[in-house]
């Protein structure tokens, strides 16, 4: 009897062991098959993408190589807008003796913003998760470095809600950097021909971190203004209202130019034209890159950008002819830039005729602000940045709230509609966002400069301004300027250099 029970128990255990083994084997085979199928799919995809010669890790399944290629190209276009685009444009618009200083302010800002962007600016403006949220509304991210190798190679994830894009984080960081860089570069136009370069060197990185990054979080990264419904397709508020209002605050904090120099004396029309051309065509990357991929909406944004710009340039010229009697190259390029600025917040949300209407508004309203409003403010905004960028950005942002077209927004933001299509809330929230950015930007810019002014003079000394580039940087853009420099100023420059040379010679002996 015991022997029979023992045999039954033994057979039962054998059957159980066989069942468990079979289950494990089946699961293992299923996992192996699944892995094999996944590898096969990746291999097929890599062949289709012509990336089969790269390591598998270099072309992960989430990566869209076409979108990545376009985003890197778009970012380079935007970078060229700054260097050499704005550098040439500002140098040409400046007086001859300030051409080097104007270009160097741009060049320095481009370089130093990348440094602060990698150290803290990117994570502060796009970091995930949010460092500070109030009742679920994202305020800003953690200001930490963004240069980890694995982080840069990962799929882009940003903002308080962890938005995704099928491009590497390194591409996204670089694309957002060129936007961050051009913002203080544009601001420089309001303080040219008098700002102390050392003060500029301190101001730019702190302004980028304290003004640009938080506003980018609110309106680019899905932060609290985005969560309330405000939209800014590619930087009408984040870049141009920031730059324009910042220029106004900076001009007020720093003070005016020398009394004899408070007028625009563009010294090189060819430089202006070359710079404006780079800025115009570079804007295809500016607005065309905002969908973060090679999409239908990217194409629409590029076309709208050029429509609005062309219309705005023509309207500005007509305004010049009406009130000044003749069109000018400086005026035409100013109108083109206000068109670029005004279409920026709306580029991927409107159709062609709506873009043309925005161009009409941007060629006329900023013109009136520049020639009728700014003189009443009694602020020495050297190149009229408040009107051409601040006012134009606000005009474009408000018209986005009017014209946002569901036939277009379906390609990037389904459900977004403007007042013209029955959604008056959109116009209201666009106006609120403009007011908030205006007040925040003005207050922080003015306060930051006044604080820096406690330690470094904000204006270059009058004796330096009387000479210009040679006194500021020891070099000039045009050799004929050397003949206009007093001999005592030249000797001072030489006295700074000669002791260093003599010291080197003594060391060699």
UniProtKB/TrEMBL annotation:
Record's bilayer topology term: Multi-pass membrane protein
Signal peptide bounds: none
GO cellular component: plasma membrane
Localisation: Cell membrane
Protein's UniProt keywords contain Chloroplast: no
Highest taxon in the source lineage: Archaea
GO molecular function, one term: ammonium channel activity
Listed InterPro entries: Ammonium_transpt (IPR001905), Ammonium_transpt_CS (IPR018047), NH4_transpt_AmtB-like_dom (IPR024041)
Transmembrane segments: 69-91, 103-124, 170-192, 199-221, 233-254, 266-283, 298-317, 329-349, 355-373, 385-404, 424-449
Pfam families: Ammonium_transp
Keyword Membrane part of the UniProt annotation: yes
NCBIfam families: amt
PANTHER family: AMMONIUM TRANSPORTER MEP2
Protein name, as recorded: Ammonium transporter
């Amino acid at each position: 009897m015991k022997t029979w029970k023992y045999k039954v128990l033994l057979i039962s255990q054998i059957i159980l062991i066989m069942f468990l083994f079979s289950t494990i084997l089946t699961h293992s085979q299923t996992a192996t098959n699944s892995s094999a199928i996944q590898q096969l799919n990746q291999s097929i995809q890599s062949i289709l993408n012509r990336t089969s010669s790269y390591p598998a890790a270099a072309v992960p399944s989430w990566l869209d190589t076409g979108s990545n290629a376009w985003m890197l190209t778009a970012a380079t276009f935007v970078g060229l807008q700054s260097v050499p685009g704005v550098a040439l444009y500002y140098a040409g618009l400046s007086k001859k003796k300030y051409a080097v200083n104007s270009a160097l302010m741009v060049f320095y800002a481009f370089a130093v913003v990348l440094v602060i962007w990698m150290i803290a600016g990117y994570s502060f403006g796009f970091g995930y998760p949010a460092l500070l949220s109030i009742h679920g509304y994202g305020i800003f991210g953690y200001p930490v470095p963004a240069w980890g190798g694995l982080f840069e190679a990962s799929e882009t994830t940003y903002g308080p809600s962890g938005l995704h894009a099928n491009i590497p984080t390194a591409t996204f960081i670089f694309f957002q950097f060129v936007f961050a860089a051009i913002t203080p570069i544009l601001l420089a136009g309001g303080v040219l021909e008098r700002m102390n370069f050392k003060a500029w060197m301190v101001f730019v990185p702190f302004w980028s971190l304290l003004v640009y990054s938080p506003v980018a979080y609110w309106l680019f990264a899905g932060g609290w203004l985005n969560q309330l419904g405000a939209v800014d397709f590619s930087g009408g508020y984040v870049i141009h209202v920031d730059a324009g209002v910042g220029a106004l605050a900076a001009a007020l904090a720093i003070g005016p130019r020398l009394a004899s120099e408070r007028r625009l004396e563009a010294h090189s029309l060819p430089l202006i034209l070359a710079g404006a051309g780079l800025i115009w065509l570079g804007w295809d990357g500016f607005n065309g890159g905002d969908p973060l991929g090679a999409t239908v909406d990217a194409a629409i944004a590029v076309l709208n950008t050029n429509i609005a710009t062309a219309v705005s340039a023509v309207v500005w010229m007509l305004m010049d002819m009406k009130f000044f009697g003749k069109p000018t190259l400086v005026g035409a390029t100013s109108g083109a830039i206000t068109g670029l600025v005004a279409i920026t917040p709306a580029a991927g949300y409107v159709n062609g005729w709506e873009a043309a209407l925005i161009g009409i508004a941007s060629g006329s309203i900023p013109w009136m602000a520049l020639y009728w409003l700014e003189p009443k403010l009694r602020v020495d905004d050297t190149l009229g940045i408040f009107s051409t960028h601040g006012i134009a950005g606000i005009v474009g942002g408000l018209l986005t709230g009017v014209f946002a077209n569901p036939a277009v927004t379906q390609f990037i933001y389904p459900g977004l509609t403007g007042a013209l299509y029955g959604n008056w809330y959109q116009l209201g929230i666009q106006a609120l966002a403009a007011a908030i950015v205006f007040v925040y930007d003005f207050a922080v810019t003015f306060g930051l400069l006044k604080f820096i002014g406690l330690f470094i003079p904000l204006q270059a000394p009058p004796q330096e301004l009387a000479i210009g580039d040679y006194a500021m940087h020891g070099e000039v853009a045009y050799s004929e300027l050397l003949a206009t420099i007093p001999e005592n100023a030249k000797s001072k420059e030489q006295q700074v250099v000669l002791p260093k040379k003599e010291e080197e010679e003594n060391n060699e002996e």
